[in-house]
Write a structure and sequence with these properties.
Length: 301
């Protein structure tokens, strides 16, 4: 997997939304954060426009991403919002210049489509990390500091508290993954995730318990757990039980789906749609250790 060049002081970074509309005040806060990191933010043409819930028409959002990808002066592209929209334009984006001059693509949630597309089609690493929209809930130092470290190529290593459903073991492999429902929706497309021999990260928000089970079972039937070397489960938040109740917690649903496999499983990693969203470098080699005392995830970059 290709790692784009890490950032240095003075680099220009692009801010845009290929998905949903982002309120300007949170973009302004992100601009200040990046300036504090000695970076030079460049606002895309999707900052401001709005069409329904989207950050402008499909053509505008596609062109904004295309221009940022093709601009040699832009060293990283940060999505400001998740929501919905990337799947409407991803197949029209030309990555031919990006292929030879890759740069960091950052975001999560709807950005899952971009992560898996770039990793699968171009063998290039990306960053699953916090976005401007998260500033609505306030500045979470740990989330933003982890993103800074990832962008600048500093060592990333996380310690995660023990969880009663963890499955112990040690493994190593490239890290891939993202939002469960989007990974499921990408099956059969050129943005489909390749999990063979990988450490898989999963997170989800706002789904019914039975629907989470459905997504995971669909991924299982597609062979996405067959050759996984390890599973890291992030935030499963705002999940709604059913009426009548489904009978299992979200974590129990995950564990039941992968029960027949013997790879280590780490629950409770602080990434996704929760209050804390620690940065993950998708496409980097990680070492996963799950013990009775807790889990360790160490990046080799």
């Amino acid at each position: 997997m290709i790692l784009p060049p890490f950032l240095k002081a003075g680099d220009k970074v692009g801010l845009l939304s290929t998905s949903s509309f982002t309120e300007q005040k949170y973009v302004d806060e992100l601009v200040q954060i990046l300036k504090d990191w000695k970076l030079k933010p460049v606002l895309g043409k999707t900052i401001g426009p709005r069409e329904g819930s989207l950050a402008g028409p499909d053509e505008l959002r596609k062109n904004d991403l295309q221009e940022m990808l093709d601009n040699d002066q832009i060293k990283a592209i940060l999505q400001t919002m998740g929501g919905y929209g990337i799947v409407r334009v991803i197949d029209k984006v030309d990555f031919s210049k990006f292929k030879y001059k890759p740069k960091w693509l950052v975001g999560y949630s709807d950005t899952t489509f971009l992560h898996t597309h770039v990793q699968g089609m171009l063998s290039t690493a990306t960053i699953h990390g916090t976005m401007a929209a998260d500033l609505e809930a306030g500045y979470t130092k740990g989330s933003w500091e982890s993103l800074r470290k990832a962008l600048f190529g500093e060592q990333l290593e996380y310690k995660v508290a023990a969880h009663p459903l963890n499955r112990r073991g040690t493994s190593q492999g490239l890290l891939v993954g993202g939002n469960v429902s989007l990974l499921c929706n990408a099956k059969g497309t050129m943005s489909e995730v390749d999990t063979n021999g990988k450490i898989l990260f999963l997170e989800e928000v706002g789904e019914k318990h039975f629907r989470l089970d459905s997504y995971l079972r669909s991924l299982k039937q597609a062979g996405k757990f067959e050759y996984v070397r390890g599973l890291v489960v992030g935030e499963l938040v705002e999940m709604e039980d059913d009426d009548p109740p489904f009978g299992k917690t979200p974590e129990e649903i995950v564990l039941e789906v992968v029960a027949e496999f013997d790879f280590p499983v780490c629950f409770g990693f602080p990434a996704g749609h929760g209050k804390v969203n620690k940065a993950l470098i998708f496409g980097a080699i990680v070492e996963l250790q799950v013990t009775a005392k807790g889990s360790t995830i160490k990046f080799h970059i």
